[in-house]
Design a protein that fits this description.
- By secondary structure, the protein is an alpha/beta fold.
- The protein has one domain: Amidase signature (AS) enzymes (Alpha-Beta Complex), CATH 3.90.1300.10.
- 39% of the residues lie in helices and 13% in strands.
- It is built from 16 helices and eleven strands.
- The chain has an eight-stranded mixed β-sheet, sandwiched between helices. Strands 1-3-2 form a three-stranded mixed β-sheet.
- Helix 8 links the parallel strand 7 and strand 8.
- Helix 9 packs across helix 12.
- The protein is globular and about 60 Å long.
- The mean pLDDT is 96.
Length: 469
């Protein structure tokens, strides 16, 4: 019996297409059939471009028949968070305020994926303006976690994470201001990377916070993420904040000896950590230690201080970015997001400038303290499993939950520092929810994070598990 096409990883499918064992049309058709089965349950997609995807797949198959490989993603079906411009199309950005706005040009990352031969199958759900994810107030309707549709599905890139977990697509692009790639990847059991600030061009993507925003790849495996990253990163003159740092061959760099890797682990957590999460982190360390990795405890700076500084930057910049929209179309923005978008108006300018000025100092101190004798830092991605949706609809519970910071205490600080961070599936809770760890690296050292995650995934099968409909 032929293997279910949708069970393949991105790299496995790309290899199968290139070798002629599977056609791009077969892959797209398999995805569309699975989308039809899952979409009513999880609402991961905003748009599904059946005709366009099949036409692109036919072109990919025709090119292959003529001996032409379009690129490392030849014929592979992808879909992305609905916040990237494509000429002639409207990106909702999860909001009503952009309805009818047709893009005149295409985002750099989409151009690069097109050049790599990918097939775009549709666009994916996201929270309003990549911000507040209050249950019941989603303009595009809620996107549910395929592992348990009754549990809160946090993070603005929840559409990509849910679609990947349900095996509807092979890879996706999300965005991250304070954890919106790593958090949904963690709760959905997929792999998600927040690259170093500046590693990937943001031209043509929704902007919330120019100091913190990053675009990053999400997929089932570290190898898949490495391939996507290699296709999209690099300097772009249309984004002056993009870096000209050399881009390594991420896939080739996956082969490492764990005996050469030093991993720092927190001596003291920044929050309460669920016992199932703590156990999964301990098992992660044990597996790598058995392969020769050096594990050492580390004292980290105050994560809550870094969280506060990130919040100042995010709130002030978001209020500036969406100030005109609030004035002219505030009625089309949900109350939760209106409140969130206005917070920055009440922060004094000196406080913002201080948060900006301290960033370099804290980055230097963090790297000198943690990475002087370690290559990677290991933390939880999310310290607690997500609560039930019904609980989050209780205003008092939701307020206490959000004020506790547990949702992004391990992610937002690294947006402030600009460091690369990778969410890696590493277990399940007793009630069947995915658990993930976070690997953090030196600036522009995504390669080491991906290599460690790849080595771990070679020894485990958490990333292969998928929910049942």
């Amino acid at each position: 019996m032929m293997q279910d096409i949708t069970s393949l990883s991105l790299c496995e499918l790309a290899d199968a297409i290139r070798q002629g064992r599977i056609s791009s049309c077969q892959a797209v058709t398999a995805c569309l059939e699975r989308i039809d089965a899952w979409q009513p349950r999880i609402n991961a997609f905003v748009t599904i471009d059946r005709e366009g995807a099949l036409a692109s797949a036919r072109r990919a198959d025709h090119s292959l028949a003529e001996g032409r490989i379009l690129g490392p993603l030849h014929g592979v079906p992808l879909a992305h968070k609905d916040m990237f411009a494509r000429a002639g199309r409207t990106a909702s950005c999860g909001s009503r305020i952009f309805s009818g706005e047709v893009a005149k040009e295409t985002a750099t990352v989409l151009e690069r994926l097109d050049g790599a031969g990918a097939v775009e199958i549709g666009t994916l759900n996201m929270t309003e303006l990549a911000g507040s994810d209050t249950p019941g107030e989603e303009p595009l309707g809620p996107c549910h976690n395929p592992w348990n549709t009754q549990r809160f599905n946090p993070g603005s890139s929840y559409g990509p994470a849910a679609a990947l977990a349900a095996r509807l697509i092979y890879g996706s692009l999300g965005s991250c201001t304070g954890g919106s790639i790593r958090i949904p990847a963690a709760v959905c059991g997929v792999t998600g990377l927040k690259p170093t600030c500046g590693r990937i061009s943001r031209h043509g993507a929704l902007s919330r916070s120019w100091s913190l925003d990053t675009i990053g790849p999400m997929a089932r495996t570290a190898r898949d993420v490495a391939r996507l990253l290699g296709c999209i990163c690099g300097f772009d003159a249309r984004d002056p904040a993009s870096s000209d740092e050399p881009v390594p061959d991420y896939e080739r760099g996956l082969s490492i000896r764990l005996a050469d890797i030093r991993i720092a682990v927190q001596r003291r957590f920044w929050s309460v950590v669920d016992p199932d999460v703590a156990d999964a982190l301990a098992c992660f360390q044990e597996i790598l230690a058995r392969q020769g990795a050096t594990i050492r405890p580390a004292d980290l700076p105050d994560g809550h201080l870094l969280w506060d500084l990130a919040s100042v930057l995010s709130d002030c910049e978001t209020a500036t970015v969406f100030g005109r929209d609030l004035r002219e179309r505030g009625a089309d923005i949900t109350e939760a997001n209106r409140n969130q978008l206005q917070r920055g108006n009440f922060i004094p300018a000196p406080r913002y400038l201080e948060a900006l000025a301290l960033r370099g100092r804290y980055l230097r101190e963090f790297c000198e303290g943690v990475f002087a004798d370690a290559d990677v830092l290991l933390t939880p991605a999310l310290p607690l499993p997500p609560p039930a949706i019904e609980k989050m609809r209780d205003e008092r519970f939701a307020d206490e939950f959000n004020r506790s910071r547990v949702i992004n205490i391990y992610t937002r600080p690294f947006n402030y520092l600009g460091l690369p961070a990778l969410s890696v599936p590493c277990g399940f809770t007793a009630d069947g929810m995915p658990v993930a760890c976070q690997l953090v690296g030196r600036p522009f050292d995504e390669a080491t994070l991906l290599a460690v995650a790849h080595a771990y995934q070679d020894l485990t099968d958490w990333h292969h598990r998928s929910p049942q409909i």
